[in-house]
């Protein structure tokens, strides 16, 4: 398991969040400030999302799936214990706390639905135990988008080529939700589906035009970190482009309402979002397309 680290969050961090989504520095600073507020009283504690057992027996453990900048990258792979033929793959992208025990539990839960679920690590083996550390780790990852993209390309290759997954999708929460969308933009002709839980969005139609897979976006009406007007702009751009996209906004739900870690968990909205996710993945990854 990755080791927590202590990082002092300095004010300059808010100014230099140079994101993988290509946003201007001012926009990135504002997004960073909003996210810090949304997690002001949060902590990476377990909640019902990560305490729910898989619906089927799974096998799981740490594996090396990539080498980035000359350094091995270790993730967490979970898969059904009884394999019957090729299994579809899932790139599971952690929230801003990092690849912690709760993300591993959620990865096992996804594997229980019949997937080769690979939880990637975009934090270089580090996890956060508090908000400031999480913020600093998220910032550091977003300042190096090329490394994160290389990481995710290799995760896709590990599932598709090494493990033989016939289809591969992505799913992520919060920080991971934004990177789930980025993965879809990075691999428009390869990825078969993308699930975005309240992640940082791209609304530029020219960038979204390359998407060639179904997209599911799950958002909270009261989320001030991912404002509703941006969600509607994202939805409108996808609709204008004729993309296969479903955007669901849960009334009264706040940011991180379905995170596997944290105190912001809202059971009703989270369970509805889980059912949407399961149905979406069934349609996009398990059915002939």
Keywords, separated by commas or semicolons:
37% helix, Rossmann fold, 289 residues, alpha/beta, disordered N terminus, single chain, two-stranded parallel sheet, eight-stranded mixed β-sheet, 20% strand
SSE topology:
Elements: E1 3-4, H1 25-38, H2 48-51, E2 58-68, E3 71-80, E4 89-93, H3 101-111, E5 116-120, E6 126-127, H4 131-142, H5 145-162, E7 168-173, H6 175-186, E8 193-197, H7 205-208, E9 215-220, H8 228-240, E10 245-250, H9 267-286
Parallel strand pairs: 1-6, 4-5, 4-7, 7-8, 8-9, 9-10
Antiparallel strand pairs: 2-3, 3-5
Description:
The protein has helices at 25-38, 48-51, 101-111, 131-142, 145-162, 175-186, 205-208, 228-240, 267-286, and strands spanning 3-4, 58-68, 71-80, 89-93, 116-120, 126-127, 168-173, 193-197, 215-220, 245-250. Helix content is 37%, strand content 20%. It has one domain (45-286): Alpha/Beta hydrolase fold, catalytic domain (Rossmann fold, 3-Layer(aba) Sandwich), CATH 3.40.50.1820. The longest helix has 20 residues, at 267-286. Strands 2-3-5-4-7-8-9-10 form an eight-stranded mixed sheet, sandwiched between helices. Strands 1-6 form a two-stranded parallel sheet. Strand 9, helix 8 and strand 10 (245-250) form a beta-alpha-beta unit. It has nine helices and ten strands. The chain has 289 residues and is an alpha/beta fold.
């Amino acid at each position: 398991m990755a080791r927590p680290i202590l990082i002092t969050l300095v004010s300059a961090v808010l100014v230099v969040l140079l994101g993988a989504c290509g946003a201007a520095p001012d926009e990135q600073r504002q997004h960073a400030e909003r996210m810090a507020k949304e997690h002001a009283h949060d902590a990476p504690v377990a909640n019902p999302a990560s305490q729910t057992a898989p619906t089927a027996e799974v096998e799981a453990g740490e594996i090396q799936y990539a080498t980035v900048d000359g350094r091995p990258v270790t993730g967490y792979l979970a898969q059904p214990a009884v394999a019957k033929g090729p299994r579809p793959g899932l790139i599971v992208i952690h929230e801003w706390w990092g690849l912690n025990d709760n993300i591993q539990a959620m990865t096992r839960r996804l594997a229980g639905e019949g997937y080769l679920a690979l939880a990637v690590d975009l934090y270089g083996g580090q996890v956060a135990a508090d908000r400031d550390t999480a913020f600093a780790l998220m910032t550091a990852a977003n300042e190096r988008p090329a490394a994160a993209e290389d990481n995710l390309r290799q995760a896709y290759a590990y599932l598709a080529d090494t493990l033989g997954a016939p289809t591969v999708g992505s799913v992520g929460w919060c920080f991971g939700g934004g990177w789930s969308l980025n993965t879809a933009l990075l691999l428009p002709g390869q990825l078969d589906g993308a699930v975005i839980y309240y992640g940082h969005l791209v609304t530029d139609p020219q960038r979204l035009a390359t998407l060639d897979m179904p997209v599911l976006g799950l958002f909270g009406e009261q989320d001030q970190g991912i404002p509703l007007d941006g969600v509607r702009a994202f939805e409108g751009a996808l609709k204008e482009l004729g993309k296969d996209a479903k955007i669901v906004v849960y009334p009264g739900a706040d940011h991180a309402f379905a995170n596997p870690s944290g105190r912001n968990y809202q059971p009703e909205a989270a369970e509805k979002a889980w059912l949407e996710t399961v149905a979406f993945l069934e349609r996009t990854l398990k059915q002939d397309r």
